[in-house]
Amino acid sequence: MAVTLRLPLLSPPFYDQTAILRRQPHLHKLRQLSCSRRDAIILTSLVLPAISLAPPWSAAATDSPEKEKANVSSRNPFLNGIANTKSWSQYIGDGFSIRVPPLFDDIMEPEDYNGGLTYYGDKAKPKPFAARFASPDRSEIVSVVIKPSNLLKITFLEAADITDLGSLKEAAKIFVPGGASLYSARAIKVKAEEKLKTYYFYEFGVDKQHVALVAAINSGKAYIAGATAPEMNWENDGVTLRSSAISLSVV
């Protein structure tokens, strides 16, 4: 059974720097983290081959009216592992929004917000991340990546929903790196504007990192939110990171 949830309408896109989190003066020194292992896990999960899918495949169910799932029934242990994110800052980007964990810093550089064009109107090199946030010690990262869906699966038709990439199990070949230990996988259906939008959720471990990943498609673009932390941190911070990833909404 799949999750059916209601998604509240969002206001027009904007970026309010103070509403998200204050930028810190030492962030330029932290730019060297842009090619860290956590980032590589998110990026390479888009292209690496299939893994052996030993864990059972299932879907959560709830009647919760919000995408930020809280106080849900104990019949749904997966959703009980999600925090209420309504009080968190909300980042609204190009076609998506995501809730930012408390105390996380925005570690995108100002030039990363330019719209993918040079000053002369030519297309610039695509930026790897649409949004990036980090814990104060930079050991935990929340990122959003946007990719054309036809780069994930060759097709002549524009993908309109994540299901166009295949089933939850089939799409794991795209989003979960080879050799990873898959802990959980869910298909979540969200109701927005009287339509159902499907999100695929995967949680896995790879290279001593624990990852919660949520993917959705809208108008031929794939939106992938990933929250990563060292395995040793997940017991304490896993609910927060998982909740941030699952708060991803495409608009």
Automatic annotation (TrEMBL):
Annotated GO CC locations: chloroplast; extrinsic component of membrane; photosystem II oxygen evolving complex
A GO term for molecular function: calcium ion binding
Spans through the membrane: none
InterPro entries given in the database record: Mog1/PsbP_a/b/a-sand, PsbP_C
Domain PsbP C-terminal, chain residue ranges per copy: 93-250
Gene Ontology biological process: photosynthesis
Name the UniProt record assigns to this protein: PsbP C-terminal domain-containing protein
